[in-house]
TrEMBL record, chain A:
Family assignment from sequence similarity: Belongs to the URM1 family.
Superkingdom of the source species: Eukaryota
CDD domains (alphabetical): Ubl_Urm1
Cited function: Acts as a sulfur carrier required for 2-thiolation of mcm(5)S(2)U at tRNA wobble positions of cytosolic tRNA(Lys), tRNA(Glu) and tRNA(Gln). Serves as sulfur donor in tRNA 2-thiolation reaction by being thiocarboxylated (-COSH) at its C-terminus by MOCS3. The sulfur is then transferred to tRNA to form 2-thiolation of mcm(5)S(2)U. Also acts as a ubiquitin-like protein (UBL) that is covalently conjugated via an isopeptide bond to lysine residues of target proteins.
Modifications the protein undergoes after translation, according to the UniProt entry: C-terminal thiocarboxylation occurs in 2 steps, it is first acyl-adenylated (-COAMP) via the hesA/moeB/thiF part of the MOCS3/UBA4 homolog, then thiocarboxylated (-COSH) via the rhodanese domain of the MOCS3/UBA4 homolog.
Entry keyword annotation includes Cytoplasm: yes
Native source species: Salvia splendens (Scarlet sage)
Matches recorded under SUPFAM superfamilies: MoaD/ThiS
This protein's name: Ubiquitin-related modifier 1 homolog
UniProtKB/TrEMBL annotation, chain B:
Species the sequence originates in: Salvia splendens
Gene3D superfamilies reported in the protein's UniProt record: HUPs (3.40.50.620)
Key words of the record: ATP-binding, Nucleotide-binding, Transferase
UniProt biased composition (Polar residues): 302-318
Domain tRNA(Ile)-lysidine/2-thiocytidine synthase N-terminal: 67-209
Domain of life, source organism: Eukaryota
One Gene Ontology CC term in the entry: mitochondrion
A molecular function (GO) term: tRNA binding
InterPro entries the UniProt entry points to: CTU1-like_ATP-bd (IPR056369), CTU1_C (IPR032442), Rossmann-like_a/b/a_fold (IPR014729), TilS/TtcA_N (IPR011063), tRNA_thiolation_TtcA_Ctu1 (IPR035107), UPF0021_CS (IPR020554)
Pfam families: ATP_bind_3, zn-ribbon_14
UniProt protein name: Cytoplasmic tRNA 2-thiolation protein 1
Composition bias, Basic and acidic residues: 289-301
Recorded coiled-coil stretches: none
Length: 99, 318
């Protein structure tokens, strides 16, 4: 599945200072769907090069990291359980780096 | 999977909820304050409207006043610059606005953010004044770091920055300074002040660098996840804090050296500068019990940047 991932607010520093990543993520095992939960673990394994604790805490993003799916706060779409679709744009912005 | 047609639209409706205010556009966020699900445009509208109400209800500005906007080039001050110029225009406050930036003299550090501030100057048509540590204090941060190393330089930077805004404001002959802070920063400051038992600072204005705040920030963001209003509740608690009348509070006076507001004989910047100029750069840094304690009774737990909060904001007595 083609997704566009964008990292901002300092999070790009964790993935080679590249802000926008066009990626291809495949469903895992039996699953047909890709949820944000799955995407996060994929990002952690495949994109984050250093200090993963700045990005994640437990199985979710670190508190203070905003997640937008197609310009919409993930709180409105079901957070970790949000089912992603082809060509979705997922933006991660850290709000922990000062104003 | 999505159909071809749906895949073509970049922003397809997800969850499909409409904004509870305009009922026409798709909701983009849930406002922690009200838990309303609203769209971007309605969020801007209600936010700007609330700020306008606060300004009007508290009589914050008078027509004809000169107002400096503390501008770092970061998100908070950029939003502030936009909102101030927009509200000033929309509601005809009749204010003379200025952007005020501080250049610490750290190679490579401010380049990007000063560019942002210069963009703000053009975008909002507000004249920009940049004051440098070199001009104000005779030292750049690079020079200070060369002398004292990387460990304690945050103290200098924080103390000097706080005064730099006031001194810049004095150069611009403004009546007021506005600075941009977000709710997270303020809640964090309230919490830290309570944890430190530092009541005196709670009743003053809040100015906060980002250096020492890691744990409190993580804690309040954890709280917010459980209860979105938690951050605003903490701010409210800070505002409502009442201090027993018999509590001894530090007195506000003026620095005997430079005249800047200070609760001590010398203001913190003068103590630090004196140390730098006499080749004793550690002076005024670290725990101030013992020798320094008499001069700086107020800053018991001064380590790093905390000491700058012992300066009162809001008035410009030189």
């Amino acid at each position: 599945m083609q997704l566009t991932l964008e990292f901002g607010g300092g999070l790009e520093l964790l993935c080679d200072s590249i802000k926008i990543h066009n990626v291809n993520v495949e469903p895992q095992g039996e699953e047909k769907k890709i949820t944000v939960r799955h995407l996060l673990s994929w990002v952690r394994t495949n994109l984050i090069k250093e200090r993963p604790e700045m990005f994640m805490k437990g199985d979710t993003v670190r508190p203070g990291v905003l997640v937008l799916i197609n310009d919409c706060d993930w709180e409105l779409s079901g957070q970790l359980e949000t089912v992603l679709e082809e060509k979705d744009v997922v933006v991660f912005i850290s709000t922990l780096h000062g104003g | 999977m999505a159909s071809e047609a749906a895949a073509e639209t970049a922003a397809k409706p997800r969850g499909g909820r409409l904004c509870t205010i305009c009922n026409t556009k798709r909701a983009a966020l849930k406002r922690p304050k009200t838990l309303e699900q609203i769209c971007k445009d309605c969020f801007y509208a209600v936010l700007e409207d609330e700020i306008h109400r606060v300004i009007v209800d508290n009589h914050i500005f008078k027509r004809g006043e000169r107002v400096a906007i503390g501008a770092s080039g970061g998100k908070d001050s950029t939003v502030l610059a936009y909102v101030m110029s927009e509200l000033n225009r929309r509601h005809d406050y009749g204010l003379d606005l200025f952007l005020l930036s501080v250049d610490e003299g750290i190679t490579g550090y401010r380049d990007d953010s000063l560019e942002t501030v210069k963009r703000n100057e053009i975008q909002y048509g507000i004249p920009l004044k940049v004051v440098s540590y070199k001009d104000l204090y005779g030292w750049t941060m690079d020079e200070i770091v060369k002398l004292i190393g990387l460990k304690n330089n945050c103290t200098f930077c924080g103390v000097f920055r706080r005064q730099a805004l006031d001194r810049g404001a004095s150069l611009l002959k403004v009546d007021k300074i506005v600075t941009g802070h977000n709710a997270d920063d303020i809640a964090e400051t309230v919490l830290l002040n309570i944890l430190r038992g530092d009541i005196a600072r709670l009743s003053r204005c809040i100015y906060s660098p980002n250096a020492y705040r890691g744990f409190a920030r993580e804690f309040i963001k954890d709280l917010e996840r459980i209860r979105p209003r938690a951050i605003l509740d903490i701010i409210k608690s800070g505002e409502d804090f009442r201090i027993a009348t018999h509590t001894k509070m530090p007195e506000q006076g003026n620095c005997e050296r430079c005249g800047y507001i200070s609760s001590q004989k010398w203001c913190k910047a003068c103590v630090l500068l004196d140390g730098l100029n006499r080749g004793l750069p550690k002076q005024g840094i670290g725990r101030t019990r013992g020798l320094d304690a008499e001069r700086n009774k107020d800053s018991r737990e001064t380590n790093g940047t905390q000491s700058l909060q012992s300066k009162q904001c809001g008035s410009l007595d030189f």
